[in-house]
């Protein structure tokens, strides 16, 4: 994958923050830190879009004939099953 050189301008406060992250050993240079921020934002955006899609699907499905308690119990059961699979 090719690379593209970018120039950014930050305040002294942000510059100090970036230098602090590097000095702690979390990153080796400024570019690595900025790339990490971009990857983090991409991940967050992906999770947001996934959640938004699920909310839209739920809204489009209309009203349920189940009670809140039935829905809650089904969600709790599904969560517990997923946790068991993750831990197996």
Automatic annotation (TrEMBL):
Secretion signal span: none
InterPro entries linked to this entry: ParD, ParD_sf, Ribbon_hlx_hlx
Taxonomic superkingdom: Bacteria
Q: What Gene3D superfamilies does its record include?
A: Antitoxin ParD1-like
Q: Does the keyword Kinase apply?
A: no
Q: Does the keyword Glycosyltransferase apply?
A: no
Keywords in alphabetical order: Toxin-antitoxin system
- Family the entry assigns: Belongs to the ParD antitoxin family.
Q: What is this protein called?
A: Type II toxin-antitoxin system ParD family antitoxin
């Amino acid at each position: 994958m090719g690379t593209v050189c970018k120039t950014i301008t930050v305040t002294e406060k942000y510059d100090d923050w970036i230098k602090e992250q590097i000095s702690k050993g979390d990153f080796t240079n400024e570019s690595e830190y900025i790339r990490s921020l971009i990857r983090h934002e991409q991940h967050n955006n992906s999770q947001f879009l996934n959640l938004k899609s699920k909310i839209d699907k739920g809204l489009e499905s209309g009203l349920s004939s189940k009670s809140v308690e039935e829905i809650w119990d089904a969600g709790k059961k599904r969560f517990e099953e997923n946790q068991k699979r993750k831990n197996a």
